[in-house]
Amino acid sequence: MVFFGCRRAISPLSARPRAKRRIGILRTDRWANVSHASLCMGTLDLRPAQHSYGWHKDNKEKEKEKEMSVAKKKIEGPDWIEGIDTRMEVMSAVPLVLSTPVGLLAANRITDKKYLFVRNIQDMEEAMTMDPLPLDGWKIELTGLIRPFRVVIRAEDLPNMEQIEYEMILQCSGNGRNEYGGIKGTPWNQGGVGNVRFAGVPLSAILKKHNVEVDPQVKYITAEGHDGPMGLEKPDLEHSIPVADVLERGILALRLNGEPIPGIHGGPVRLVTPGLFGTMQIKWLTRLRFETAESPNFYHATEYRMPHTRLKPGEKFKFTLENSRPTWDIRLMSYILDPLPGAKLKAGVATISGVAYNDGKAPIESVLVSVDKGQSWQPARFDVPDSPYAWYQWKAQATLKPGTHEIWARATDALGRSQPLDGKIYWNPNGYEWTGVFKNNVTVE
Questions:
Q1: Conformational region of residue 374, where left means phi above 0, alpha means psi within -120 to 50, and beta covers everything else
Q2: Around 393, how many Cα atoms within 13 Å sit in the side-chain half-sphere?
Q3: Right CATH number for 333-444 from 2.60.40.650, 3.90.1150.10, 3.40.50.1110, 3.40.50.2300?
Q4: What residues of the chain score a pLDDT lower than 70?
Q5: What is the pLDDT of residue 231?
Q6: Pairing state of beta strands 333-338 and 348-357?
């Protein structure tokens, strides 16, 4: 297995031509691709687009029909996608959100793609499959404050370049939302996380190959995917990531757990930057914009953010770029995977096991376990993974007497970061970045 910092050649992926969907506005006698963010950031793209959809009456009618279809699917639920474990929990049919039962997370160190959680903010219809999408015809555009101003990367050329593989955490920033209590949104418990292996070509290597010079003023790289808004007047998704992070370790990922990335998990090309939350790992990548400021896009500027100041539970808060930060870095976390919540155990010595992880910026130094609600703690044994971005598997033993017990697990890393006993101190209206101690109730007979 090859981890961070190690390189290996990966065989080319099979591919077939496909058409791309582009959204444009009518400009004289041809289409031009223009986004609101492009206008705001000065990255206007006037390249011709042969397969654009104009915002005229016919297409508005089509969008209305699509919205009606979406509403119908929400009521009826999704058709099960072949290749996905049928034990997955459907949190939403449209956009598709699937949660991994905790018991499946304990099955293997590497989370199998068939039970890896799915969190789509927007769906891409042709990508709702566990099969890989073809690389041929797929293009990734680089634009903004770079020289030359615009570079187009052909996806079919990427497998011929040297690649890096990361073992890493993939986690929804809303994982654990239920612990805050009473917050709207996907009701995540622990099922929005997995430990996977992504492999692909470093963005820095691509820039070098194409002789791209990045302006020193650039602070962010804004990533766009091929997914589209879920209806009229609904924004498209994009995120801005600090340029230093992306150039240091960001890859254009082509493979997941040693195989071409399934469409449903963001293939054929996904922007992956280890240590960041899943919302920043942009699926179906089509464009990277090199910019001096963060995107004003709804999802980045007001949705996936954390307030700079602590809030009281229930306190109203209007997010702006100035009073909050994006959900970038994964927070320190530990989970108890065995025994499961609500388990019935026999009195005596019990083995307690789970995982712990952080953003990879410092090693985890300890995992402590308590069976008496924090009155006493004992250290767990754990293996240190080769990759700083992967999870640590830990194990401890405790003597349990008959009755009801609440088992706690708490991790600490070399930066002194530790999980708060009450994670609600970081309450926020969107329920993001839960980092508190998870507490499993068990019955001992």
A1: left
A2: 12
A3: 2.60.40.650
A4: 1-78, 228-233
A5: 61
A6: antiparallel
206: left (phi over 0), alpha (psi -120 to 50) or beta: alpha
Q: How far apart are CA 139 and CA 157, in angstroms?
A: 10
User: Do residues 382 and 392 lie in contact, with contact meaning Cβ atoms separated by under 8 Å?
Assistant: yes
pTM of the model: 0.82
Are 394 and 367 within 8 A, CB to CB? yes
Q: What is the pLDDT of residue 376?
A: 95
Closest CA to 301 of 318, 278, 326: 326
User: What single-letter DSSP state applies at residue 48?
Assistant: B
For residue 233, how many other CB atoms are within 10 A of its CB?
7
The predicted pLDDT at position 396 comes to: 97
Judge whether 117 and 106 are in contact, CB under 8 Å: no
Amino acid present at 411:
A
pLDDT at 324: 97
Tally the C-alpha atoms within 13 A of residue 422's C-alpha that lie toward its C-beta.
4
Residue 4 · residue 164 · CB < 8 Å: yes
Q: What SS3 state is found at 432? A: coil
* CATH topology assigned to domain 7-326: Sulfite Oxidase; Chain A, domain 2 (3.90.420)
| DSSP tag of 292 | S
Domain positions in the chain: 7-326, 333-444
- Please say whether the beta carbons of 209 and 153 come within 8 A: no
* pLDDT at position 325: 97
* Phi-psi sector, 423: left (phi>0), alpha (psi -120 to 50), beta: alpha
Instruction: For residue 148, say if its preceding peptide bond is cis, omega within 30 degrees of 0.
Output: yes
pLDDT in tens, 79-90: 789 999 999 999
Q: Which of 68-74's residues contact partners 24+ apart within 8 Å by CB, and which partners?
A: 70/94, 70/230, 70/231
Q: Is 431 left (phi over 0), alpha (psi -120 to 50) or beta?
A: left
pLDDT of residue 441: 94
Q: If you write DSSP's letter for every residue of 173-201 in order, what string do you get?
A: TTTTGGGT-S--S---SS-SEEEEEEEEE
Backbone phi, then psi, for 25, in 5-degree steps?
-125, 155
pLDDT, position 233: 61
Q: What is the pLDDT of residues 132-152, one digit of tens each?
A: 999 999 999 999 999 999 999
At 75, is the secondary structure helix, strand, or coil? helix
- Token look-up 């155990």 returns 345
